[in-house]
Write a structure and sequence with these properties.
The protein is globular. The strands form two sheets. Strands 7-9-8-12-14-13 form a six-stranded antiparallel barrel. It has a four-stranded parallel sheet with strand order 2-1-3-4, sandwiched between helices. The protein folds into two domains: 3-123, Probable inorganic polyphosphate/atp-NAD kinase, domain 1 (Rossmann fold, 3-Layer(aba) Sandwich), CATH 3.40.50.10330; 130-301, Sandwich (Tumour Suppressor Smad4), CATH 2.60.200. Helices cover 31% and strands 34% of the residues. It contains ten helices and 14 strands. It has 308 residues and is of the alpha+beta class.
């Protein structure tokens, strides 16, 4: 690995500002372990995408994301702002210090900084799939965005919106538990129509509909326990019109990943899913809340090399 062509993208605002405070410590560890790199700090939403795009065009071969799942999503999208040959010969490294840090759980990347840096030095990579979501922005415009972990509509979208509007000082798990419980009491199940791979159709009220490339979301909920990020398939999970009491009673099972057998939970796999609704149904994508239905989700096999 050419250490001299490594760019580190740092989001100092991630994890309620914790990443900015920890960056000098992380940088010292990387330098002490012999890594040579340049770094750029993001200055607001979308900046990590711009930094990544420029770095790849400037022939950096390793892009390292230092931040949370939202920062990681922006960096991943930056890979798709450049020509295929530049993206294809580059690799993504992850030092996760965000609120949720969910995607690294699926990949087995350590959260502890010293061990995470070792993954950069070792240079072993895994070719993973990505998801592509086409959806509607709050202002009504249509857009698209890549995701590496999970997207969902319904309760998950409302929870992400609430968590991201409040302080995350409680940390990952507690912030998301708080957001989930508050959202649960305020949320009303939504009427949706979903077409899976152009043939299977589901219509009716849902609590949430999850489309997963990774296994975890919400600060450690093992929502898609069977998902593999390199099987060229989305794990699709319907939670059909479940009562608040039943959801609360089974929340611990979601963290353990033992919820697939609960009545009202339906699991399948797909390559593409199209979702519409007569209501405003919010979309969650890699921990952020960028828009709403209608939404089309598809899997892009073998899309990105990640250091593991």
């Amino acid at each position: 690995m050419d250490d001299n062509r490594m760019m580190v993208v740092v989001n100092p605002a991630a994890a309620n500002g914790k990443t900015g405070r920890r960056w000098p410590y992380i940088k010292n560890i990387m330098q002490a372990k012999g890594l040579h790199f340049d770094f750029r700090a993001t200055g607001g939403p979308g900046k990590a995408t711009v930094i990544t795009q420029k770095a790849l065009n400037d022939e950096y071969k390793t892009l390292v994301c230092v931040g949370g799942d939202g920062t990681l999503n922006e960096v991943v999208n930056g890979f798709f702002e450049v020509e295929y040959n530049k993206r294809n010969r580059s690799v993504l490294g992850i030092i996760s210090v965000g609120t949720g840090s969910d995607f690294i759980r699926t990949l087995g990347i350590p959260r502890e900084i010293n061990r995470a840096v070792e993954t950069l030095i070792r240079g072993k990579s895994r070719l993973i799939d990505l998801g592509l979501a086409r959806f509607v922005l709050p202002n009504g415009e249509k857009t698209s965005r890549y995701f590496c972990n999970i997207t969902d509509i319904g309760l998950g979208g409302e929870t992400a919106a609430r968590v991201n509007k409040t302080s995350k000082i409680l940390g990952g798990r507690l912030s998301f538990i708080y957001g989930t419980i508050v959202s649960l009491f305020l949320y009303k199940n939504k009427e949706i129509s979903a077409v899976i791979d152009g043939k299977i159709k589901r219509q009716g009220k849902i609590t949430t509909l999850v489309l997963a490339n990774g296994q975890y979301f919400g600060g450690g909920m093992k929502i898609a326990p069977l998902a593999e990020p390199d099987d060229a398939l989305l794990d699709v999970l319907f939670i059909h019109d479940m009562s608040k009491i039943k959801l609360l009673a089974n929340l611990s099972r979601v963290y353990k990943g033992t919820h697939l057998s609960i009545s009202g939970v339906e699991f399948m796999r797909a390559k593409k899913v199209f979702i519409t609704s007569p209501e405003d149904v919010l979309l969650e994508l890699d921990g952020e809340q960028p828009g709403k239905a209608p939404v089309e989700i598809e899997i892009l096999p073998q899309a990105l090399q990640v250091l593991v």
